[in-house]
Amino acid sequence: MTAAHFIYIPSILLIGIIIGWVLGSRAAQDAYAAELKKREKKN
Questions:
Q1: At residue 6, does pLDDT exceed 80?
Q2: Burial of 27 (0-12, 13-18, 19+ CB in 10 A)
Q3: What is the pLDDT of the chain when averaged over all its residues?
Q4: What is the pLDDT of residue 28?
Q5: In angstroms, rounded to a whole number, what is the distance separating the alpha carbons of residues 9 and 39?
Q6: Is pLDDT above 80 for 38?
Q7: How far apart are CA 40 and CA 37, in angstroms?
Q8: pTM of the model
Q9: Sign of the four-CA dihedral 16, 19, 25, 26
Q10: Given this model, what pLDDT does residue 42 score?
């Protein structure tokens, strides 16, 4: 393994974690908004 692997692999993993965090937070916000709409329709 070259020294580039010690920079490249962790950076790709970090980018993947960041993308997953962003997509997950968007999905959570959408689910929360949908739950609020459901509760408003019940009342």
A1: yes
A2: exposed
A3: 93
A4: 96
A5: 45
A6: yes
A7: 5
A8: 0.70
A9: negative
A10: 81
Helices (H), the chain: 3-42
Structure tokens at 6: 């010690």
25, two tokens: 């937070």
In angstroms, rounded to a whole number, what is the distance separating the alpha carbons of residues 35 and 8? 41
Joined together, the tokens standing for residue 31 give 């689910």
HSE, side-chain direction, 13 A CA sphere, residue 41: 6
Q: How far is CA 28 from CA 1, 4, 24, 25, 32, in A?
A: 39, 36, 6, 5, 6
The rounded distance, in Å, linking the Cα atoms of 26 and 34 is: 12
